[in-house]
Amino acid sequence: MVSSDSPFSSTTRSPVPKLSNSFTTRIFSDVAGDITIVVDGESFLLHKFPLVSRSGKIRKLVADAKDSNNSKLELLNLPGGPPAFELAMKFCYGMNFEITTVNVAHLRCAAEYLEMTEDYRQENLIARTETYLNEVVLQSLDKSVEVLSTCEMLPPPIAEEVGIVSRCVEAIAMNACKEQLVSGLSRLDCDGDESTELKSSCLEWWIEDLSVLGIEFYQRVVCAMARSGVRPDSVTASLMHYAQASLKGVGKCQIWNPARMKSSPTMAENDQRTIVETLVILLPTEKTSSIPLNFLFGMLRMAIMVDATIACKLEIERRIAFRLEMASLDDLLIPSIQTGDSLFDVDTIHRILVNFLQRIEDEDYEDCGYESEGLGSPGHGSLLKVGRLIDSYLAEIAPDPYLSLQKFIAMIEILPYYSRVIDDGLYRAIDIYMKAHPMLTEHECKKLCKFIDCQKLSQDACNHAAQNERLPVQMSVRVLYCEQLRLKNALSGSSGDGFLSQRISSGVPSAAMSPRDNYASLRRENRELKLEISRMRVRLSELEKEQVFMKQGMMDKSGNGKTFFTSLSKGIGRIAIFSGQTGGKRQKSSRKSRGSEGKTGRSRRHSVS
Length: 609
Hints:
Helix content is 63%, strand content 2%. The chain is mostly helical.
């Protein structure tokens, strides 16, 4: 609070009663009021002399009044209304009152309206409020935010004309930059502290203060911060806090009552839509900015619930697709708010996948060298992660009785074949869908099963598929045929080497092809080779598990130790198929004649189990 002897207060010997007819007669008992001023329906009985000596507008109105004895004036659209006018009149009478962050904006605009300039009296109300703004408000971030929040209750033209809004916005941005430097030093001090809460509290404390602003002023503040050089991560943290404070509990009724979306939106829903769309526009565009993926999915859910514009939802989907490989299954489970539709919003996830694949394709074209297509290629690794994620997503939405076959197939076929090392997850999702939709025709079941590559199924999945009565007969035959090929390869010791050689030989670029086609063909064959190597690794892990089982059986049946030692050596010989050591081929051929019968029996026992 400002003391009575400060430059932001006005003193008199009289107390501070309410400004009314009783107040004026009590102060000036010997002088009756000679002018009545009406502000928004509230009348004030006052005296002309103290008013016309400081207010140019009242002086002009009094001069133009016809009845000079007891005139009555009405002030229309006075900023701040009767409270601001009462404070201005107290200033004219020389009464004591405080200029604070709560009333300074109203007082400044009321003084502008009443023309209380230096032309009529030195240190008039405009000068006094300007001094407080420049020396107190604009020097502090939190005070600037408080004053800016009070400007939301003022008519926009007058607040903009006197420059309060623009000056407060720039002051907040400038002080935020100062706080950023201070927080950098505080970060160093807090790094050695064990308390995480203390570390977070000493950084960007102003983020919470900005949540009191309306979305229009908040947008101007964030844009000013971006121009001033505030860190993108600080801007992101502020956006997240503002969204949590402003959109708390949005859409709860829409989730459980989708029919409500048919009615016309209320004013509150329109405000929420404006907030969501504005926050999406304000998201930092720098690649270095790390926007949490769960926040983007939360904003996408909000955008769907409040029926934001298509451009807004597409922008969020594009940002999510840029880091889709980091998403979790819970992130993808977006409830559908459309009546009669599936339980989950499959169309949105499909669009995100389209953007993700387009990003992978663009990154591949940007890579000019072949070294980027190695086993550690970031693009291929991201594709494998997304493939596993989508398989889990398909298994989660498959039990939905309202999920159409067309949408389910669209989610399956959008991913390329090389995005899956093994098809166990895809097989599980398709099996769940056929179990939850028993009315599927045989043709539709065949249409689903054609997406499963039996050569990419693990031993356990093949055993399950061979006994699965829901699968078409053709699918069961394909599974058994692939199992036979697998056993044959295991006995011969080739393990798909011929298949690899065939792939490699077919990938030799033709001289008639253009250089770009040759490059694309080589990239495609490179992906196939990596996929085959991944399959080999999976098969190797299965063989290692089989070796462990064999060793356990040897320990359980100690009486037949010689037989188990022989089986163990044969199992190690099978693992040597993938080791690539010198002499491995000679060892396999020497064991082939001796162990063919034992291998056949052991493989059959494994397939039955």
